[in-house]
Amino acid sequence: MAGFLEGLSPIWQGLLQAFNLLISLDAQILRITALSLIITMSAVIIGSLISIPLGSVIAYGKFRGRNTLIWLIQTLYAFPTVVIGLIVFLFIRKTGPFGPLNLLFTPQGMIIGQTVLVLPIITGLTISALVAVDLTIRDTITSLGATRLQFLISALKEARFAIFAAIALAFGRAISEVGAAIIIGGNIASPGNFWTSTRTLTTAITLETGKGDIALSIALGIILLLIALVINVIISIVQNR
Amino acid sequence: MLQRMQYTRFLFVISAVMIVVAGITFSGCTTPTPPTPTPPQQDLLIATTTSLYDTGLLDHLGGIFGPEYNANLRVTAKGTGQALELGQNGDVDVVMVHDRVREDTFLQNGYGVDRRVFAFNYFIIVGPPSDPANTRNMTATQAFDTIYKKAQTNPKVVFVSRGDASGTHAREQFLWKNAGYNYSAIQVSGPWYVESGTGMGATLLIAEEKNAYTLSDVGTFLAYKGNLSLVPLVDQGDELLNVYSAMIVNPAKFPDTKVQLSKDWINWLISSKGQDLIANYGVSTYGQPLFHPALGKWELLGVSQAETQDPIP
Q1: Where are the domains of chain A?
Q2: Please, where in chain B does CATH 3.40.190.10 lie?
Q3: What value, to the nearest 5°, has the Cα angle with vertex A177 and ends A166 and A220?
Q4: Contacts with B, A 197-236, CB within 8 Å
Q5: Which of A105, A193, A194 is the closest to B76 by Cβ?
Q6: How far apart are the first and last CA of chain B?
Q7: What backbone phi and psi angles, to 5 degrees, belong to B75?
Q8: Residue B77 forms contact with A (CB below 8 Å)
Q9: What's the confidence (pLDDT) of residue B16?
């Protein structure tokens, strides 16, 4: 039985190799990181374009079932990513309803999965942000004779930091999820064509660890942590304004 | 009233913009931006058993085949069961698996065509060097029988199963049956029997942590040996023969299948060049081959001669 200190040595070696990979800007690591960022950014952009208008309607709309809808959206914050993966998989596979689009095992398919993941988060937090805009400010805007459109634009301006934080939060959740990414993407390396590769930071860590490529996994883990750190810094800067 | 209308119009404009931008983002992703050489490179999507991928064999072969045929091999590593399921739904072009029984069903049901046998090796029973069940020099069925019996009284005897409907898992079930056991009874017979539910490489690492026995293909075991203290205990006998085949997903059922490139790939695998590459893969790193070429071994493998040597027309 190896002692604790001896047991640390393979971890230490893995860490050293990982830093070497990072410093030398290993091509494989760059590809994986770039692909992760592209997929998640696309999902967050599409998600925001849908969620912010949707959130505005729900926040200021008056309709039956509004509270139930908000409750439902907030429940979906915790939508298990493997379930999203399974559902999207069944819909986009060749025999599924969207089979002819050939989206399974493609980055586009993964973007769909992550968009589904960020939709409730951005929508729900946009609603909270808009509802939280100070009532007196809302009254002032209205009393100045603003149209509903002007009102909404002012309210969105007031809530912009909170909405931005919501988008950053959604980004963090999407880039770090692995369940949907493996089911929909399949962790495919695709050496000849970057745009058909589906190996992202999380899927590579999950499956390459099983393949014994520890240094690569540690290096990718460090990048993932750095991304999370940057997101948190952005959120706290924004929220302190 | 006017305000209400403006508001509705505003929402309409926003949704229109949203859909357009989403459309642009999406189509931007679909069009490959890097300059592609003429004729355009083709992707071939393969679902494979984990052993062919975890050992690095497919990356190696793909790296040579790709430039030769202007092809890009996209490989997703699954167990045999999952790979065949993907094939049955037309989600991939080629499946590369190792379970004759389920392959036959797959072909009979018309999901796949043009099976070719391109490699073989052996399954091995591996376990801790102390071998608490004393399985050394037994046959595989004897060893399984002994492991079961010893595990009932000795808590040090543990067995890790793939438990993932893979080819290796199918062979394990076959060996339990040969040893006279009902597999569903084995599964629930106690804490000595553990299902990993994952690929071969990860399962070996789990067996290592648990000081347990497991059934592995010899290729993955050799590729992982450096990280393992587990030793091979039983590696002889026909019941451990492990035969790898490739099949094309039936284009009659799924017209999107890239038939020509699939044929090129499988024909290349069984060509003397592909067979040589398979024979030599891993020799310099592991001191012995991980896989043996199937060419000329059809009698040993119990398959038709055509399946090992006739190119797909």
Answers
A1: 27-240
A2: 42-121+241-309, 122-240
A3: 110
A4: 197, 207, 209-212
A5: A105
A6: 73
A7: -115, 125
A8: yes
A9: 52
Which backbone phi and psi does B120 adopt, to 5 degrees?
Answer: -150, 160
Q: Are B217 and B244 in contact (CB under 8 A)?
A: no
Question: What does the block give as tokens for A107?
Answer: 């980055």
For B168, residues 6+ apart whose C-beta sits below 8 A from its C-beta are B51, B79, B98, B123, B162, B200, B215, B216, B217
Identify the three-state secondary structure at position B162: coil
Copy the structure tokens of residue A7.
């047991």
Flag whether residue B62 sits within 8 Å of chain A, measured between CB atoms. Answer: yes
Q: What is the pLDDT of residue A154?
A: 86
- Asked whether the beta carbons of residue A191 and residue B63 sit closer than 8 angstroms, the reply is yes
ipTM: 0.83
C-alpha distance from residue A189 to each of A28, A79, B52, B246, B254 (Å): 9, 28, 15, 20, 24
Tokens 């998600």 — which residue? A47
List the CATH code of the domain at B42-121+241-309.
3.40.190.10
Q: Which of B7, B42, B198 would best serve as a mutation to test chain A binding (most A beta carbons within 10 A)?
A: B7
Task: Summarize pLDDT for A51-88 with one digit per residue, the tens.
Answer: 999 999 999 888 999 999 999 999 999 999 999 999 99
Question: Strand, coil or helix: what is B31?
Answer: coil
Which CATH number is B122-240 given? 3.40.190.10
**Is A189 an 8 Å CB contact of chain B?**
yes
**Percentage of chain A surpassing pLDDT 90?**
59
Which H or E run contains B19? Answer: helix B2-30
Residue of B nearest to A93 (CA): B91
Extended beta strands in B92-154, E state: 94-97, 112-127
What values do phi and psi take at B124, rounded to 5?
Answer: -135, 150
Which residues of A fall within a CB distance of 8 Å from B22?
Answer: 46, 49-50
Q: A152 and B6 in contact by Cβ < 8 A?
A: no
Nearest residue, CB atoms, B14 vs list A53, A105, A195: A53
Q: Are the beta carbons of A50 and B224 separated by less than 8 Å?
A: no
| Exposure string over B295-308, b if 16+ CB within 10 A, otherwise e | bebbeebebeeebb
CA separation for the pair B120, A231 (Å, rounded): 49
- Residue B96's DSSP bridge partners are B48, B246
Query: In this predicted structure, what is the pLDDT of residue A38?
Result: 97
Per mean pLDDT, which range of A21-25, A44-48, A170-174, B126-130 is the poorest? A21-25
> Is 1.10.3720.10 the CATH classification of the domain at A27-240?
yes
The answer to whether B254 faces chain A, any CB pair under 8 Å, is yes
Chain A residues whose beta carbon lies within 8 Å of the beta carbon of residue B227: 212
Q: Do B6 and A53 touch (CB under 8 A)?
A: no
pLDDT digits (tens, 9 = 90+) for A2-47: 578 888 887 888 888 888 888 888 888 999 999 999 999 999 999 9
Report the residue of chain A nearest B50, measured CA to CA.
A211
d(CA A22, CA A18): 6
Verdict on whether the full-model pTM lies above 0.90: no
User: How many other β-carbons are positioned within 10 Å of the β-carbon of residue B232?
Assistant: 16
